[in-house]
Automatic annotation (TrEMBL):
This is Integrin. The keyword Hydrolase applies. It comes from Streptomyces alboflavus. The keyword Hydrolase applies. Residues 431-458 are annotated as: Disordered.
Amino acid sequence: MRKKTLSAAVLCAATVLSVAGLSATPAVAAGPAPKPKADFNGDGYADLAVGVPGATVGGKAKAGYVNVVWGGKKGLGGHGSTTVSQGAAGVPGTVEKDDGFGTAVSTGDMNGDGRTDIVVGTPGEDNSAGASAGTLTVLWGAKSGIKGGFTAANGAYAGNQIGGLVTTGDYDGDGDRDIALSTRNDERAAMETRPGPFKAGSPATLQRVDSWHFSGPRAVTSGDFDADGRDDLAVTYGGTEIAGTAVYGTKSGAWKAAWRAGDTATALATGDFDGDGTADLALGEVRPNPEAEEGDEGFCAERLGGAIATVYGKSGTTLGGAVSCTTQDTDRVDGNAEADDNFGAALAVGDLDREDGDELIAGASAESVGIDKDAGAYWILESTGTGKELYGSGLNQTSPGVPGTSEAGDRFGAAIAVDDYNGDTYPDSAVAAPGENASSGGVWYGTPKDRPSPQVSVTPAKLGLAGARAYGAVLGQ
């Protein structure tokens, strides 16, 4: 990853610390410490759920499991981990070849007991309805760790493939957490919801949000974009005949699109990037609808190597603010845009410095580092105000304090999560390199507030995991 020279003015303006060259100026006092987003055992430290759908379990290839890396004072990697498969006590299902348990992972307190639970999508699950009908499982958080699970929904026919994408939120405003999930049906794909509560006897009926012919959802995220107290669902979709991005809500009582754009993307993330109190939406590796009229360049006219469109919120609207576009050729962004970098193909959000709004952490797993193709990198980006381009610094495995060595095929930055894993009240980053160590994989845990303190690599070998493949490619958020 080549570096542009950063001016003194940029360095003085920076509020995110980075070993890649940005320094911080003491500015505003830090805001309130955020609560952990994912605390499965209720000890006050955030934990990380890693889906490993390609893992071999009991000799069954690609049966899959979820590995929970426990947080604590030492952060990730210092407190061990727990592996949960369909062969674990109390977890529904049976370990079978090609199930892909852990293909999608999302987190939330699904039963209201104060501990975070894990929602797991297994689209390759076979059941009595047919092959690859799919299943949706909730793994219960407990003081002792993960304690059993609950079948939230099963696919209704062969090829239904439910749960390839999952996210959670309270979409109907009844106080129960709900699950949004992808499904398939011959030439169609859809987003549906499985409303809470999640307990024995609760109806597992799915509710349709939207569906697409010869197209389907690519990424989803939840957020309250219209500030009505209910979570909304953002979906980006694409295929041979239709593509776009939409935000759906239930303010009218039924699912309805409150905002649409012709652009599609690879990743979505929501946060308040300009600090104005409204939810914004980031579209990673954004591109226009292939059926758009000639001359319609969509949100980003320049997209070489990948672009991030930031759609800002505006009070009283759903994403009614300005739109900015950020690439590696944007001023004050490290690197240079090159074909097929996939800049923004992975996104996560956190207020890393607890000042002036959220930061966007963006991965580019196909970024070349020197002569090493697909070595990968990630960036910490922030906004200077509504409608403004993001700016920030990039890191890879050649950066000071980042363990390991950039190698071809590592795909560092392929998945990203953010939470306070060491309990210091500042969010930390967890950045995956699923191609590391001959595709065994790994996750790099860092403390952006304290840079240039060294990061720590968490790998299957260090955790004593068997059968892992592409560890880190799926991170729960």
